[in-house]
Amino acid sequence: MPTVQQWRDGDWQIRAISGGASVKTYRCPGCDQEIRPGVAHLVAWPADDRGDLTDRRHWHSGCWRARDRRGPNLQRGRGAPRYG
């Protein structure tokens, strides 16, 4: 069951995905690294979204919890150039 969390950028629906239910590879927008099959993670989408699947993003749980501490341009891979 999804739950709603309030963040600075609005309300988000969150659904936990167990490792056993994770069967595809996704890219986490928080760290730009892969979430491989079998890894527990979560899916987040705007709470006011009425079923538009294109707004759903798969996140590492730790990346989701730390997203308020990251700047909006810090979503990059380890090898990506640093700006600023």
Automatic annotation (TrEMBL):
Q: Which domain of life is it from?
A: Bacteria
Q: What name does this protein carry?
A: ATP/GTP-binding protein
